[in-house]
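can u do me a favor
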């Protein structure tokens, strides 16, 4: 496993450069894939800063299509605010159809499978519909901006694929309290682990993300074959303690150790920046107190 990091002077430039950096580590798995899902982020189909820039996805397609011209490639998203169709139009994604042999799939309208999640009492009793396109793909790619979040501190590649796969109007059902949502994201991710995780950090978002935050010209691109590692490095560079991000803490099996990550590329220190957190940041940390109470009640 590897995480690559490079400087970026644009969404296309950064993504293409970081993918070439890790090329030999992902070449074999991409070439063997038959059903490739590209999952961008359209949390809102009207606020462009909240979405994955089309240039980043174009760079990704320019990279993977010469490697594997036979796979079915789907760009899929289940938007939270607005329709996927409007997102494709507003963010200029439709032009990709003219250049590449791809399909667009609205994950909110997709066939689905029911998965169980935790309720507010941490009982796994709620059933929600999850896109089969996501679950059935044999090569999943999550590509998004680095953004702060109003419930789980940061939203990066793990949360992008999980919440996009949950069909509307059940996305809000995952939010069962600060502890439960972190446990739910971690638990759902295990059904849909990504094979390639990409952060377009040319311009990120800080403050009141994931929609109404402020732009941060960061100038970095990060990618790797393990989304947990990619998100952990990204969150750390944003100035956050990974152990404070509940879903990453659980996906690390409660033993976060960034020193175990194989990092290649440029010096991490040049990209360290303190992102302003959401105004509810301190409340979001309550998942830790809730978890301590839960452990005492269980054990």
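np, heres the sequence
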């Amino acid at each position: 496993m590897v995480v690559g990091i490079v400087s970026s002077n644009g969404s296309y430039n950064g993504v293409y450069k970081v993918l070439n950096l890790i090329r030999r580590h992902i070449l074999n798995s991409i070439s063997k894939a038959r059903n490739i899902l590209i999952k961008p982020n359209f949390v809102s189909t009207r606020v462009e800063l909240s979405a994955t820039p089309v240039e980043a996805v174009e760079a990704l397609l320019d990279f993977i299509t010469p490697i594997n011209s036979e796979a079915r490639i789907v760009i899929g998203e289940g938007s939270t605010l607005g329709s996927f169709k409007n997102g494709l139009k507003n963010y200029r994604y439709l032009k990709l159809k003219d250049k590449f042999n791809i399909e667009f799939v609205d994950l909110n309208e997709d066939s689905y499978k029911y998965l169980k999640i935790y309720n507010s009492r941490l009982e796994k009793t709620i059933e929600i519909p999850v896109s089969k396109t996501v679950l059935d793909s044999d090569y999943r790619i999550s590509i998004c901006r680095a953004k702060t979040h109003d419930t789980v501190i940061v939203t990066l590649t793990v949360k992008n694929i999980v919440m996009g796969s949950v069909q509307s109007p059940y996305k809000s059902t995952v939010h069962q309290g600060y502890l439960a949502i972190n446990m739910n994201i971690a638990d759902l991710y295990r059904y849909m682990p990504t094979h390639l995780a990409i952060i377009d950090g040319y311009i990120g978002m800080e403050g009141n993300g994931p929609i109404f935050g402020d732009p941060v010209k960061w100038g970095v691109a990060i990618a790797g074959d393990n989304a947990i590692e990619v998100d952990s490095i990204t969150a750390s560079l944003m100035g956050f303690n990974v152990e404070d991000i509940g879903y990453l803490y659980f996906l690390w099996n409660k033993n976060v150790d960034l020193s175990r990550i194989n990092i290649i590329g440029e010096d991490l220190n040049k990209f360290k920046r303190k992102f302003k957190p959401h105004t509810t940041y301190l409340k979001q940390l309550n998942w830790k107190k809730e978890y301590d109470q839960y452990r005492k009640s269980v054990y």
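The chain is about 35% helix and 25% strand. hope that helps!!
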